[in-house]
Amino acid sequence: MEELDEIDRRILAILQNDATLTNQELAGRVHVSAPTCLRRVRRLVEAGVIEKQVAIVSPEKVGAGLTGIVEVTLDVQAAERLADFEAAMAGERAVTQCYRVSTGPDFVLVVQVPDMAAYHELVHRAFTAQRNVRNVRTFFSVHRSKFDTRVAL
């Protein structure tokens, strides 16, 4: 895909704040015609710039109010073992984010669970049952002062 121009950036900025807008409403805010806006949004989706459009749900209001930030260190960091761990985490519903990181642990995860009992079940299933996991360290959120899904444009 070619470089994003100012119209693309305006479309992305607006959609990051409210993806429920109709194409007509979005076009009006971006100051382009509705067909132009639709064509550009489709192009951004096809190019993978827009990965998906979702509803952001409040974890506390659906019974998943315990947030853990988990550091995981593996015994063996061979590419295949790292990929195996990532695949296992992709299958864990409680794991909402998984990052392979440098310097320190091998992975940092964000998990959402209902309570400590559910966290302990996750730890047993996802970490201690895996032979390649050497160390797990979890920090529990006591207050979320900022949460944003927007990417700076």
TrEMBL record:
Name of protein: Leucine-responsive regulatory protein
Chain coiled-coil ranges: none
UniProt keyword Transcription present: yes
GO-annotated molecular function: sequence-specific DNA binding
Gene Ontology biological process terms, A to Z: regulation of DNA-templated transcription; response to amino acid
Pfam families: AsnC_trans_reg, HTH_24
The entry's keywords: DNA-binding, Transcription, Transcription regulation
Domain HTH asnC-type: 4-67
GO cellular component annotations of the record: cytosol
Lineage: Bacteria, Pseudomonadati, Pseudomonadota, Betaproteobacteria, Burkholderiales
UniProt key word Plastid: no
InterPro entries for this protein: ArsR-like_HTH, AsnC-type_HTH_dom, Dimeric_a/b-barrel, Tscrpt_reg_AsnC-like, Tscrpt_reg_AsnC/Lrp_C, WH-like_DNA-bd_sf, WH_DNA-bd_sf
Record-linked CDD domains: HTH_ARSR (cd00090)
Domain of life assignment: Bacteria
